[in-house]
Amino acid sequence: MSAPRGRAWQGSARWRRWLLALLVAAQTTAACYAMLGVLPYHGSTGLERAIVAVSAILFGWISAGFWLATFGFVIRRCGGDPLSPGARFPDAALEAVALAPTAVVFPIYHEDVQRTLAGVRAVWRDVMRSGLGEHFTFFVLSDSRDPAVWLLEREACQRLREELGAQCRLHYRRRTINLNRKTGNVADFLRRWGRHFTYMIVMDADSVMQGAALVRMVRVMASDPKIGILQTAPTLINAVSAHARIQQFATRLYGPLFTDGLAALQLGEAVFWGHNAIIRVEAFMRHCGLRHLRGWGFLRGSVLSHDFVEAACIWRAGYEVWLDPHVEGSFEESPPTLVDELERDRRWAHGNLQHLYFLFRRGVSGAHRMAFANGIMAYLASALWFAYLVLITVELAQFTLRPIEYFPDPNSPFPVWPEWQPQWAINLAVSTLFVLFAPKLLALIDVALDRERRRAMGGVGRLALGMVLEMAVSILLSPIRMLSHTRYVVVTLLNLPVRWAGQNRTEEIGWAHAVLHHAPGSVLALGWAGFAYWLQPLFFYWSLPIAVPLLLAAPVTVWLSRFGSGRALRRAGLLLTIDETHPSAVVRDLQQAPALLQPSAVGAFETAVIDPQRNRFHVAQARRRADTALRRQRRAALVARCLAGGPAAVSTAEQAWLVDDGRALAELHAAVWCAPPDTWWHARVAQVCAAGQ
Amino acid sequence: MSDPGEASQALLTRAFSYLRLSGMDAAQCCRAVEGLAGALADTLTRGTATEADFAALWAAFIERSAPVRAPGGAEEGAPTLPILRGSIGYARFGR
Hints:
The complex is a heterodimer.
Chain A: H1 8-38, H2 46-77, H3 85-88, H4 91-94, E1 102-108, H5 113-129, E2 136-142, H6 147-164, E3 170-174, H7 181-193, E4 199-202, E5 208-209, H8 211-223, E6 227-232, E7 235-236, H9 242-266, E8 277-280, H10 281-287, E9 293-294, E10 300-301, H11 306-316, E11 320-324, E12 330-332, H12 338-353, H13 356-359, H14 366-401, H15 422-448, H16 451-456, H17 459-493, H18 511-535, H19 537-551, H20 553-561, H21 563-571, H22 578-581, H23 585-591, H24 604-610, H25 612-621, H26 629-645, H27 652-661, H28 663-672, H29 680-692
Parallel strand pairs in A: 1-2, 1-4, 2-3, 6-11, 7-12
Antiparallel strand pairs in A: 4-8, 5-12, 6-8, 9-10
Helix pairs in contact in A: 1-2, 1-15, 2-9, 2-14, 2-15, 5-6, 5-8, 5-23, 9-15, 9-17, 9-21, 12-17, 14-17, 15-17, 17-19, 18-19, 18-20, 24-25, 25-28, 26-28
Chain B: H1 4-21, H2 26-46, H3 51-65
Helix pairs in contact in B: 1-2, 1-3, 2-3
């Protein structure tokens, strides 16, 4: 099979993309012309040419966003895109389509167990409410390494199975060898069980989807066998902190314009975002395995951001990838704090920059090349903005400190008189602000024209207030994000290691953490603003919109991370979303999920050793292995060490080995209940007994 | 062995706690511990009980009351899906 050809949408895709390219090019050219007018030597020096080049890329980047949102606005106001899956497959036409076996997979790695399983529970219950639950099988695919986490995952899954009853098809699988991160985790699942299923719906640890959405996705896939991946546009829910609520509000308010615009532009060459999407299993298994990259530096090793690459692979194999923003009931959560968001961006930056490897490879479609470039620019734009500030500072320093150069071009006999054109500078600044903020105004108009959405989000007045607050916070956070992303780009280019850990989804940020995290940026901002003041007071005022947010980064981060701040905004009726005011059943289920595990002062490993029920459960879960002499020898040594010194005497990996072995866990259990009175285990058993009474 | 009375009490208390943690209700626990107390009384009647006697009583009690499963024995109620092996095709990208 080769890349899709001759489909009706391809002609429309071509002219829409050309139109976007023309509009962006025209707007960027005008901005470059204005920039040349603003610079004192009008682009005659190398430094000024560099400034114009960087400005052109940055302006082109924001211009593309502006036109994308404008496309989205026009499409929404015209009743939607007739080529979208939502329009091609109306619900009524899909009702007769039979469902095929579908796996719903939750790949997890050191996540909050209660939250993850509450999500699984909510989706399962909603699927059952749809009356078509028998077609879906759920899998929790754990890559967690620390037994303190995966023992709880295993127990919570068992509790959930007990709660949901005999009909519940929920499987828990933990990989003992964690090769290739999330791609390896999903590939391992597919190798073992993939052939049982026609489709696979991939979820994230914080993903939730309505049962009706899952059913609709399966039916769309069944109706068009050319679709390899169908991606939904998840909206953010469950935000509590001010930071998360602002992100949630922004995605609900502005998201539809951008996703509708993007979907209309990409059509059947959309990308996979890694979760809240359905995949045709056979095609995916046959064509989307990802080898280790064989480039140099950061372009070597496993593919971190695998989703875009998988979309490119499946398209190349002859299947289409669609983004369907109109599948209702697709949700995810936002990191609660700026620091957590930046930590996540650190990994994403590395993953997206790795796409440079694929950018110019053969067999990648033009749309997917653009998607790769877009992902790279999401982080590279920050580095370019930083470079722009450096270049502007150098330009101004040269202009102020050096004597005026009337012949900047050594090959030209004509003198150049440097001149400032404040009117051009003001025009350029206003145009840039317009390009940045007009999509937000369009989004506000779009909601204002939709009575149901407008009311659900608190009415036009509150929406406008929320938007002003979001814009203020966005202005405050932009320089902080810019500096962090610049650092990530540099760190990635230097190929420093990435920590691939589970995300914090539930905690606030303390003052000490925030101050330490933002100290380098604040010091840099102070130095830069001081230099600007010394150089030219006007430049100092120009630097303030960037320097002040960096100086205020710590208090802003702390305030935004506070759950109290978020709740206060909620009480004031600000930043409301439809999922807060009219939550669907699946969201209510998620919020009201009972605790699957009781908090315990005794660690998960100790509990697995001491507690008879849990010990029996974990022993039964252990793989049946040949009891070789080597294994017996290792078991005897580890059990003896663990009995003598408690769990601290063995490493985390050794604890995992003891539990995985099964026999070792049973031996430990028998021994600790007979431990002599003055030992660590005896005291722990007594504590567990006291708690059990 | 220190005081046989103290050791016997500790054994019975431990047995009760163990069964409670195993999920038995209090009445069932009492009945099971009653059996252990009888066996203990027999042992003590025969003479002074050693540590080995206590260990043997405990092992027999555990085996009778809540045997530990063998590794690999599937837990009741846990769904199992047979493995159906498939292979993954790896993508190649030319220069």
